[in-house]
Amino acid sequence: MAAAPSAIDEFLEQEQNKELLRFTTAGSVDDGKSTLIGRLLYDSKGVYEDQIASVKKASVNRSAGPIDFSLLTDGLKAEREQGITIDVAYRYFTTPKRKFIIADTPGHEQYTRNMATGASTAQLAIVLVDARKGVLPQSRRHAFIASLLAIPQVVVAVNKMDLVDYSEEVFNRICGDFREFARDLHLSNVYFIPISALEGDNVVTQSARTPWYHGGTLLHLLETAPIEMNYGEDMRFPVQYVVRPTLDFRGYAGQVASGTIRQGDRVMVLPSGRTSKVKSIVTFDGDLDEASVPQSVTVCLEDEIDISRGDMLVRPSRMPHVSRRFEATIVWMATQAMELDRPYLVKHTSKQVRANITQLRHRVNINDLSKIEANKLELNEIGVVSIETHQPLFFDAYRKNRGTGAFIIIDPVSNLTVAAGMISERVDREDRRTSMLSGVEFERSRLTAAERWERAGHQPVTIWLTARTEVAYLLERELFDRGCMVHVLADDVESHLLPELAKMSSAAGLITICTISSDSEGERERARELVGFEQFVDIDPQSLSSKDADAKDQITRILETRGFVRPDGRGLGGDGI
Amino acid sequence: MSAVAEAISPRSLTHLRALEAESIHIFREVAAEFAKPVMLYSIGKDSSVMLRLAQKAFFPGPLPFPLLHIDTSFKFREMIEFRDRYPATLGANLLVYRNEEALADGANPYKLGTQKCCGFLKTRALLDGLTKYGFDAAFGGARRDEEKSRAKERIYSFRDAYGQWDPKNQRPELWNIFNARIDKGETIRVFPLSNWTELDVWQYIHLENIPIVPLYFAKERPMVVRGESLLPVEHDPPLLLGEKPQMVMSRMRSLGCTPCTGAIRSNADTLPKIIEELFLMRRSERENRIIDHDQEGSMEIKKREGYF
Ligand SMILES: Nc1nc2c(ncn2[C@@H]2O[C@H](COP(=O)(O)OP(=O)(O)O)[C@@H](O)[C@H]2O)c(=O)[nH]1
């Protein structure tokens, strides 16, 4: 075995730049799924190995004759005969361009949960359609699952074209039918390919028997389809594990769930709402300037903040929803039916919390997507539910972010994973009210800020105060008596609205004292951004005297020092400009 | 079709870096959610890769779990030397467990047959070892591409209180969210390399310069040549009439106990050569129409080779 070092070294070099694509295949029994997968595994292997092996042996004696490709995969039929559990099987193959992971799932309705499982990690779905039969209910089901799990790309492989004489007409009709019903599905990219898995047409090599087809082969598509996952672009970093080997190193280990985290970024920690800056992004292979989904890294912050597993780092201006209530579509995966108001556990990113399913809005008919009245969900059924968790989760809608929109439900008694959930886009009640304010315009006024300051005798300022309502009212009196235009915004139930309201009163030139009953730095940071940090005074509750009157004086002095009001009386008037 | 969401390409990681990130995530999940995890350390190449990934997962901290080697007493001397040297250099805490009772009874593959011998010295020893230390999660280096029957194995593989695996009772696994709930006495086997292929493992070892046992590299070694097979002479295998050891340029494709590990004739004394050899072997198997993408061989070898 004399080595050809340059060839192998070149090969290894090239191998190291290869990408990874995960896809799922769904087809009904006898559509030819095993044959297709077998062909992909076998033919691509040949192509791949020739790359390196041809250095050794110039001529290859490819054995001719039909091969039963379904032997490569243990097909569904065999499994059924042997009574083996039907499950998702993972298969691997590689070409010079990419490595592929196939989640091979059975297509029958009774295997909905397996299809959902296979689809959960897929970046692309191949839906097989038998050219003779056209688009059947099961094809719809497969497309629906791809849509539900937000797989970014779907390839409709119209198989057994050899049995319809490679007819362009048949192919076009099937494409049309599929497009027609898929119009209501949220599928981003759909491709159609006429193939014969058995004969190999358009699988790995372009077929001469479909001259009317100008797209690429299936393998070509797999090798060139964009590697995307439908993660949003907002940075989400769920803390998985705290690395603390010595007293002077404290790192937060996790896998970036979406977006990019950069060294020097200002980040907010949820749920505490504390903010800090990214000091470094540490890995075994050296520090990084930035890390993107799906990298696993360790983040160090500039400030000592108490952070533990289940917390999440985000950018203050791009917050996820923070809520104990949300709506979701769930796929029920257990033989024991879903029950309302029974304790379950929800595991979402690195957080596991107790939860209840408070309402079953409706069941979804997986074949035609119609809504069905229902009061329970059985194995393999899909439903839209309301969920309430015991602690808030930090999430995005699944369609916007597969990383922070997905969760599983665990039965705390049997410990089984009983459902998979996708959080709905529907914004919750609070959010909708917040967004009502976003239409209000502040910038169009013909009055200038300077005119307002002059009239008021002081600049607008927003004072953020936690858990000291009494102090807020004392301060309001003090400032009012000094001639300031001042008012208090107390949160009660609507704390999420405070930032927007503060922005309005700031625009009107008022001094606004926001008093919030419990620490919510999410709101605080939003307020700081909205009114602008120069106009924002954040009072650290720990620094205040426990006596209300003293606390009021302390804040007054802060306002004086920062130049918002004069020590002796009114505000600063025009001087402050 | 309407676009659902801006589909943002993650800045494309190479396949090895993507697999690495996934494995690191798994290591951290387990360390965070189980009371007492352990890494089953078999000394082979997959264990070496696992060890590197675990180092990366907790860097700059130490491994938050010990390693456990189930020693059958029939391992190659070079394996034991490697075991006693390499993990220590990483600051790993290595535990060794043997079924001393069976060994005292003279358990060996010649007397018991391979299957029974494995049953006592590996499977039993492993279960006893886990129980002795009270481990609730054990990392193993098994991969799904090793053989067809493994294609459906979960990353978190649930074992009941008797250490039994029930294929019907495995939990669905979605996204990268793992269910770590178990009752007392139950355990989870965790396979962080599930999505790696044999080729990925070799490429990663090459890319990362990961130390492996020298037995993987070709060298002149004393072997008994029996038909097509090469039998290592360590631990004195019973010889047939007229057989005597001779020096053969050879290496091991997988590492296990000497009586059950065949060597292959090979000149592959570097990683690139090993990878090249792997290709040529597959190719010839393919050309001879042996359709079996399980390269490490039959279930039998697998059983002999590891715990899983
Ligand atoms: N004529 C023809 N037969 C095919 C094609 N693909 C699969 N088949 C046959 O259809 C049958 C079912 O195929 P199989 O791959 O086992 O289907 P599965 O149940 O979807 O996995 C087998 O007899 C295959 O040989 C094709 O493209 N053309």
Distance between the termini of chain A: 84 Å
User: Strand-residue fraction of chain A?
Assistant: 25-35%
Average of the residue pLDDT scores of chain B: 85
* Main sheet characteristics of chain A: 7 strands, antiparallel
Radius of gyration of chain B using CA atoms only: 20 Å
Oligomer: heterodimer
**Total number of strands of chain B:** 10
Proportion in helices of chain B: 25-40%
User: Spans of chain B with pLDDT under 50 lasting ≥5 residues?
Assistant: 1-10, 288-308
Count up the helices of chain A.
Answer: 13
Radius of gyration of chain A: 30 Å
CATH class identity of the largest domain in chain A:
Alpha Beta
The stretches of 5 or more residues of chain A where confidence is low (pLDDT under 50) are 52-66, 74-78, 428-439, 571-577
Query: In whole angstroms, how far apart are the ends of chain B?
Result: 46 Å
Class by SSE composition of chain B: alpha/beta
Task: Count structural domains of chain A.
Answer: 4
The main sheet of chain B comes to: 6 strands, mixed
Bound molecules: guanosine-5'-diphosphate
Give the DSSP E fraction of chain B (strand runs of 2 or more residues): 5-15%
Overall pLDDT metric of chain A: 85
Report on the structure:
The complex is a heterodimer of chains A (577) and B (308). Chain A is built from 13 helices and 26 strands. By secondary structure, chain A is α+β, with helices and mostly antiparallel strands. Chain A has four domains: 211 residues, P-loop containing nucleotide triphosphate hydrolases (Rossmann fold, 3-Layer(aba) Sandwich); 79 residues, Elongation Factor Tu (Ef-tu), domain 3 (Beta Barrel); 106 residues, Translation factors (Elongation Factor Tu (Ef-tu), domain 3, Beta Barrel); 115 residues, Rossmann fold. In chain A, the strands form five sheets. Chain A has a seven-stranded antiparallel sheet with strand order 7-15-11-12-14-9-8, covered by helices on one side. A six-stranded mixed sheet of chain A has the order 2-3-1-4-5-6, sandwiched between helices. A six-stranded antiparallel barrel of chain A has the order 16-20-18-17-21-22. In chain A, helix 5 links the parallel strand 4 and strand 5. Chain A is elongated. Chain B is an alpha/beta fold and 308 residues long. Chain B is built from nine helices and ten strands. In chain B, strand 1, helix 2 and strand 2 form a beta-alpha-beta unit. In chain B, helix 1 crosses helix 2, helix 2 crosses helix 7 and helix 7 runs antiparallel to helix 8. The longest helix of chain B has 20 residues. Classes of the chains: A alpha+beta (577), B alpha/beta (308). The site of guanosine-5'-diphosphate has 18 residues of chain A, from helix 2.
